[in-house]
Amino acid sequence: MTAVLPSLSDLEAATEIVRRFVPPTPQYAWPLLAERTGARVIVKHENHTPVGAFKVRGGIVYMDHLQRTPQRVPGIVTATRGNHGQSVPFAARRYNIPVLVVVPHGNSVEKNSAMRALGADLVEEGRDFQAAVEAADRIAVERGWHRLPSYHPDLVSGVGTYALEFLRAEPDMDTVYVPIGLGSGICGMVAARDGLGLSTRIVGVVSTGAPAYALSVSAGQVVSHPVTTEIADGMACRTPLAEPLEIITRGTERVVQVSDAEVEEAMRAYFTDTHNVAEGAGAAALAALMQERESMRGRKVGVVLSGGNVDRDVFARVLAH
Questions:
Q1: Terminal alpha carbon distance of the chain
Q2: Which of 147, 165, 186 is the last residue of a domain?
Q3: Cβ–Cβ contacts within 10 Å for residue 76, how many?
Q4: Which of 92, 119, 147 is the last residue of a domain?
Q5: Closest by alpha carbon to 85, among 50, 121, 61, 49?
Q6: Short-list 140, 132, 97, 115, CA closest to 52
Q7: Which residue in 17, 73, 172, 231 has the most C-beta neighbors within 10 A?
């Protein structure tokens, strides 16, 4: 079955929903990043949303659609490494629906605190995101609660609103780099690019410590791989999903792998050149551009700063390196 992308009208309808709670985020051309990379770099600042990451858009649209269904929703269970887990209670509290979020052991302390502050109950289970997913599946059945996935067409429509903003503001970008977690963010970019009829090349970015999507694109089928990244938790995917894999395979130029060292270098570059805080996944797009700076020299290039939710002690260590 061919994976279906949101249409332009879907993205525009989602924008109307998102705009009730989240204003458009800025996109800036930073001169020091241009000097560093040799390209004209435009940064989409999704670190400037109310939860510090692009995921909030998806949660808002999913919850808006869910509360329109005739079935009563007694509660919601979801799994996350942090940003998706903030988007769900952010949206659900508007409808007084309780939320339980499953995170793996060793998850970001500050992301956990943010989820609790938004009203979510947290359960820690498993060593990685996939284990948290499996636990969430089980708990949802046990409680009879709605299982909210990490990838869904409504989530893609919601998060795709950032891409629609970006591409409408900068339609002449040659290439845009987008981090890949489970796939909603990059699929939203493909949907916006195709809906607007643009020729912008889309480059996906994964961690060398979580290369499953890159390996899967190369193999033409889902390939699982252990997760070892210690900095890019937002991209810590062990097993890709077939639907976003199909969209990424047909809709992107390539998938680039960046190391933890390259990601940390990009986090420092963001702070030095723009004084913005980027978490590991949020800095991955810039890390990929820096890796490919020679081939991108002189081009107008977009990078998605997808989030800035990094623990203070981690960021201090990165900056001190």
A1: 48
A2: 147
A3: 26
A4: 147
A5: 121
A6: 115
A7: 231
